[in-house]
Design a protein that fits this description.
The protein contains 2 helices and 9 strands, in the order H-E-E-E-E-H-E-E-E-E-E. It is an alpha+beta fold. It has a domain at 29-112. It has a 4-stranded antiparallel beta sheet with strand order 3-4-6-5, with helices on one face. A hairpin with a 4-residue loop joins strand 3 and strand 4 (52-54). The longest helix is centred in the first third of the chain and has 12 residues, at 5-16. It is elongated, with a radius of gyration of 20 Å. The two termini are 25 Å apart. The model has no long low-confidence stretch (mean pLDDT 88).
């Protein structure tokens, strides 16, 4: 995706004012294929496509029984009252065979943060 004319104008102005210009963004996204959506209604605290968070381990276990290929995260780095279910590989909890771009899982692509330094041509 190319920068808009407004973005280019802003970068040019910053250069004119003597600034060095850098740009970064939030963590990345990943393309994933749907395996279905757990039907757990209000039992799920956060119903993401790449991660589902439950406040009760029994609710997570019930969802896992419907999606046996999914991964029960062992709460590394999370509060003890959060129980995460992740789709395995490049999968997502969305309509079966639906292709989506999302974030929130455990893939390397989702932790890469872009960092760009702009320079002026002389």
């Amino acid at each position: 995706m190319l920068p808009s004319d407004d973005a280019i104008s802003l970068i040019d102005r910053l250069f004119d004012e003597g600034f060095e210009v850098f740009m970064t963004a939030d963590h990345g996204n990943i393309a994933a294929d749907g395996i279905g959506t757990p039907k757990d209604g209000v039992l799920v605290e956060v119903a993401g496509k790449r991660a589902r968070i439950y406040d009760n381990p029994n609710f997570r276990a019930e969802a896992k029984s419907d999606y046996p290929e999914s991964i029960e995260w062992p709460n590394i780095g999370l509060p003890q009252d959060r129980h995460v279910l992740l789709p395995k590989g490049l999968r997502a909890f969305t309509a079966e065979n639906k292709h989506v771009v999302s974030h929130g899982g455990i893939s390397l692509e989702e932790i890469i943060v872009p960092f760009v330094r702009f320079t002026q041509d002389e």
